[in-house]
Design a protein that fits this description.
mainly alpha, globular
Length: 207
């Protein structure tokens, strides 16, 4: 699919489309564990990004590709061990989103920044950003983010009951990817609390 989309973008000279395809494919590679390839695709997307050229895409779809890519790279670079670069990328995404005056993009950037702090193992900062995300998402009625904010805050506070409920809510709307991913986040908390068998059972149940 990625190759077909890139062919269309190349044949039509549509650099906006190519930028979007590379950004999305970069995140897909992260999910497949192909982190170095993901990094290369994200960097290509950022190199191709042109603020003015992407104005129509932002108006039509709401999402800014630079915010999407920088936010994702915050977590990706952290996974690769580049902690400072990862944190800077996440902060750059939030700064760009704030500059756009777009609540949707601000929530997106805060979600990825909270995830970056989570990957760094910093409970205080994760909680701080997750609570800020929750406040913005509820204020502006952006339904995607409150469950994720509560799950991350649950990890930060070493609490499992509310995150478990949110995972069930996510699965109830058909999101089969998120269930296993966030179940592992809850399992991290259960491990920290010494509940090893409960954590293992929770992950197996939702895979």
């Amino acid at each position: 699919v990625k190759d077909r989309a890139l062919t269309v973008a190349t044949d039509t000279g549509n650099r906006v489309l190519e930028c979007v395809v590379r950004a999305i494919f970069g995140q897909t590679l992260v999910l497949r564990g192909r982190l170095e390839e993901a990094r290369e695709e994200c960097l290509r997307a950022l190199e191709m990004y042109d603020f003015q050229a992407h104005e129509l895409h932002r108006r039509m779809f709401g999402q800014d590709v630079a915010v999407f890519t920088l936010g994702g790279m915050g977590m990706l670079m952290t996974l690769l061990g580049y902690l400072d670069q990862g944190l800077q990328s996440g902060r750059d995404a939030l700064e760009k989103a704030i500059g756009l005056k777009s609540p949707f993009n601000v929530c997106f950037a805060k979600g990825f920044l909270a995830g970056t702090w989570h990957y760094r193992g910093d409970r205080e900062r994760t909680s701080e950003v997750a609570n800020s995300l929750l406040g913005d998402a509820e204020l502006y009625g952006i339904a995607d983010w409150p469950p994720i904010a509560r799950i991350l805050n649950g990890w930060a506070q070493r609490e499992t009951e509310e995150p478990e409920r949110e995972i069930d809510n996510i699965r109830s709307i058909g999101n089969r990817y998120a269930g296993p991913y966030w179940s592992f986040t809850v399992a991290q908390t259960e491990r920290a609390l010494g509940k090893f068998e409960i954590g293992r059972a929770s992950c197996r149940e939702r895979v």
